[in-house]
Amino acid sequence: MKEKKISFTPEKLWSIAVFAFFAWFIFSFLLFPNLNTIVSVFYQDGHFTTEVFTKLINSEKAMRSLRNSLILAPSLSLTVGFVGISLVLITEYFDIKGANILRLGYMTTLIYGGIILVSGYKFIYGKTGILTSLFVKIFPNFPIDWFEGYWAVLFVMTFACTSNHMIFLRNAMRSVDFQTVEAAQNMGASQFRILTRVVFPVLTPSLMAVTILTFITGLSATSAPLLVGGRDFQTITPMILTFANNISSRPLAALLALFLGVATILLLTIMIQIEKRGHYMSISKVKTTIVKQKIRNPVLNVLAHVYAYFLFLIYVVPVSLVVLFSFTDSATIASKKLTLSSFTLQNYIAIFQKASSYKPFMVSICYSAIAASIAAVIVLVACRILQKRKDRLSGAMEYGLLIPWLLPTTLMALGLITTYNTPRPWMLNKVLTGTSIIMLIGYVIIKIPFTLRMTKAAFFSLDDSLEDAARNMGAKPFYTFMRVQLPIILPTVLAIFALNFNGLLGDYDMSVFMYHPLNKPLGVYIKSLTDSETNADNAALTFVYAVLMMIISAIVMYLVYGRGNKIDKSKD
User: Fold this and answer.
1) How far apart are the C-alpha atoms of 530 and 532, rounded to whole Å?
2) Residue 144, SS3?
3) Residue 375: pLDDT over 90
4) How far apart are CA 364 and CA 345, in angstroms?
5) pTM of this prediction?
């Protein structure tokens, strides 16, 4: 009996090499570091132990941070939910004068977020803020530290976290069938009853999803507690950072990160179950778009307009002041008094003249561009495999690449740090912790899930007949992909690249754990500039960075949404 010879064609060799790469990538950066973090918590000095739980319970700081996070997360879900629903109703459902202008103001958080946004609020409400200085002049005994602690963090994060509502909930509102609203009106239902019985059922699935995402955001809050939380209201993530900087306290940091990971997985599981229940569907044959409803009660109508423009001021004033003061000198920033003579371009000129000023900006641009490019290439190869193969191996690869979606950034960062502070054989026995490359790895892995989900949707929308035609003409698979398929999905790939670049440019959560001291990224550098002991010159730099980032973000948002690219961010 003749034995079958195994022939290794170039295609098979390429397939083996690609799967070997993905197996190495998933094991090295997505699976092993997180498992190693869990092991480091319960396995110390060569034996299993639960001593870290005792240390956690006995640590007043750690327990306080846990309590603060557990207080912030549910309360933030309520306040963001209330404000977020209000924004959508104001801009999409009720007939409010100037709704288009209001919408632009409410959507400023899409280009102005993270540590930049918190620093803007601190500039207004902080110890030396504009509003605080005004209060002190009027009331000499007014406490300058009034904007610190729980209420300050809740206020800032409430207006910083409504971006999901302006994306997800607006899309859901547009799916409301106006015929059902008209039917309810004809039956004599009040506006409140129509809103609660007809409109809200359509919004419920999306509302539940964004509420869970907000809860997760509250649990893992970083920037707001660091800048305005004060000593009394530090949450889990800042405490993890504090413990991670001390080797003896790293098990505590790992346990807190593990708590965040378990909570995130549970909450995302709940969200998936909610999504499986389906959505409210209209039974009308011809669906009509919603027509804005005028509030019939004149008193309520006036109150709604006052409330809408009050929210508008809360959103727009910090952005406007940051832009205005970025064009003023340090003396004006210190005095908080705007005059025509104080306006200058010197801040912008100085930031590009001093290497110490423009280096963090260039570092973030380079890291963000390289990480977004690497993530795009990895996902393109992965999606090509998922498109062609429907076996268990490709399925396992897909689930492996989605791991970062289930875990908080803190846990992944800590896993990479604690895993690669010693040589590992599969990394050529190189120590990565403390090097410039580890932050790049962190950037790549946190953007893999979103990139995969969006790119996969683009791949599966391709017409298979195009590939069949190319194959019939004798084209090789690689040639077909490069010359036929890639040009079709390239706009989507570029849009995803832009969104990833935009998201990484001002990153703080991952960067603060993994940056190299000689290559400080923009998010970390801005945090150092916003410390209470910094001077007006540093504040000017912060404002210039904020304006430059807003310009870049606005351009990205225009390219992604303003020009009709076929990318639906609401699927994220």
Assistant:
1) 6
2) coil
3) yes
4) 23
5) 0.79
